[in-house]
Amino acid sequence: MLNSYRDLTRDISAELGKLRSDMPDTLQAFNALGKAASAEGALDKKTKELIAVALSVAARCDPCVGFHLQALVKLGATRAELADVLAMAVYMGGGPSLMYAAKASAAFDEFSAAAAAAAPVSA
């Protein structure tokens, strides 16, 4: 059972670092693809990350859920926006997507709590 999306994204990042040494051209190309796909265009970055969350849920990819929920929290996504995206993912993917929607909701809560704890306290 997955205990922490923060731990998962940290651990996967470390493993990806190893792969960068083993296959630098592939990782460099993949990173360029991600940067190009997520760049502002007709859709803003938050909308693109919401789409990525829906696709992560549909693909049942825990690391993907973690990385994209982490990005969404940083972009200021709301629980209502997440709920709308998860509703569509469940509609399109049925029961298995419902199970991953619950995981995505937990990841949102985890990253939101961490962001709130790290935020500077105003006087």
From TrEMBL:
<dbReference type="InterPro" id="IPR004675">
    <property type="entry name" value="AhpD_core"/>
</dbReference>
<dbReference type="Pfam" id="PF02627">
    <property type="entry name" value="CMD"/>
</dbReference>
<dbReference type="GO" id="GO:0051920">
    <property type="term" value="F:peroxiredoxin activity"/>
</dbReference>
<protein>
    <submittedName>
        <fullName>Alkylhydroperoxidase AhpD family core domain-containing protein</fullName>
    </submittedName>
</protein>
<keyword id="KW-0575">Peroxidase</keyword>
<keyword id="KW-0560">Oxidoreductase</keyword>
<dbReference type="InterPro" id="IPR029032">
    <property type="entry name" value="AhpD-like"/>
</dbReference>
<dbReference type="InterPro" id="IPR003779">
    <property type="entry name" value="CMD-like"/>
</dbReference>
<feature type="domain" description="Carboxymuconolactone decarboxylase-like">
    <location>
        <begin position="24"/>
        <end position="104"/>
    </location>
</feature>
